[in-house]
Amino acid sequence: PRPRVWVSQPLYADIEARLDEWFEVTRTPRITDHAPDAIAAALADADGALVTLNDRIGAAEVAGAKRLCAVANVGVGYNNLDVDALAARGIVATNTPGVLTETTADFGFALMMAAARRITEAEHWLRAGRWQGWGFHQLLGAEIHGSTLGILGMGRIGQGIARRARGFGMRVLYHNRNRLPEAVERDCAAAWLEREALFAEADHLVLVLPYTPANHHIVDAAALARMKPTATLTSIARGGLIDEDALADALQAGRLAAAGLDVFEGEPAVNPRLLACRNVVLTPHIASASLPTRRAMVSLAVDNLVAAMGFGPDAGRPPSLVTPPTAT
Ligand code: GLV
Ligand code: GLV
What family does the Swiss-Prot or TrEMBL record give for this protein (predicted)? Predict the structure, then answer.
């Protein structure tokens, strides 16, 4: 019999069809079915799984999955997978780096600019009928050109944001657990700094690092206190990196000018204190959301799954294996 694969929600039928060449495929029609016991049940007789950030897969979900050998995540971040628990069971995990880099960098830059120039705040104000005429003192924002961009997490996406910043005449500083090779620093025109110094120096700080338990609330009250009161904070990474109550305190007290958030600790729930802040741009985890990019993510995930399960041109060598993440 052919190996069995579970696809956890409808993605793109034409791309998923490549799985039918090798596998017996079971598809779940709705993401709302993905309670832990439903995931465990779906994995129970699967050899492989194509999953998304909607699916949390840890020790409990794979406990009864005796045949499972590969889990392909459609997403670059994979904190929805307990990679250690999977590895302990000999289950290979993959993600989708590379294909979403530029689209996600575009969005990170846009969100930073929207926060700095108060674009959504201004639109809400206009739609509320409060605009009485051009106002010299209305809605003054922060400069982008000529300012200092701080990037925390200088992987592919961080580097993409740094390259965009050059066009805006920004000075680019970054912190990463490992310094980039000099040639890459030159290409990005970016200089490495200690994390504490980055918080203090940045006019606009953008988070693009993976979430790990060691990075939990890496932006806490103490980190926010280091930032300039005129600065902005943008995150397109994972919600758990920021202490959202501490951020709301800083935004309300005027100790931080503005924030742009695409990710939230309890998403889809958004901290009500953030919802109450005017000076934060809130978007529903859409940084990689363009049709070509979402298609490329599914395509890479399919390639990964086929290869991880020992089929196709890359049999046994999936293009993007993940390893347990480490702190930045
Ligand atoms: C989206 O957040 C991703 O990690 O791909
Ligand atoms: C990881 O998220 C990256 O920057 O590619």
Answer: Belongs to the D-isomer specific 2-hydroxyacid dehydrogenase family.
Contact 51, 10 (CB under 8 A): no
Ligand 1 atom with the smallest distance to the CA of 236 is 2
**Order of strands, sheet of 190-192, starting from the edge strand that comes earlier in the sequence:** 190-192, 171-175, 148-152, 204-207, 232-235, 258-261, 280-282
Residue 328 clears pLDDT 60, i.e. is over it = no
pLDDT digits (tens, 9 = 90+) for 231-263: 999 999 999 999 999 999 999 999 999 999 999
The full set of domains in the chain, from first to last, is: 4-98+291-308 (3.40.50.720), 101-131+140-282 (3.40.50.720)
156 lines ligand 2 (CB under 6 A): yes
Distance 41 CA to ligand 1 centre (A): 25
Tens digits of per-residue pLDDT, 183-213? 999 999 999 999 999 999 999 999 999 999 9
ipTM: 0.68
Is the minimum distance from the CB of 288 to ligand 1 under 6 angstroms? yes
Centre of ligand 2 to C-alpha 99, Å, is 10
Residue ID of nearest Cα to ligand 1 atom 1: 75
Q: Tens of pLDDT along 39-90?
A: 999 999 999 999 999 999 999 999 999 999 999 999 999 999 999 999 999 9
Amino acid at site 89: R
Q: Is 145 a catalytic residue?
A: no
pTM above 0.90, yes or no: yes
Active site residue 285: yes
Q: 121, 324, 129, 107: which is closest to 235 by C-alpha? A: 107
Q: How far is the CA of 237 from the centre of ligand 2 (A)?
A: 9
Residue 295 appears among annotated catalytic residues: no
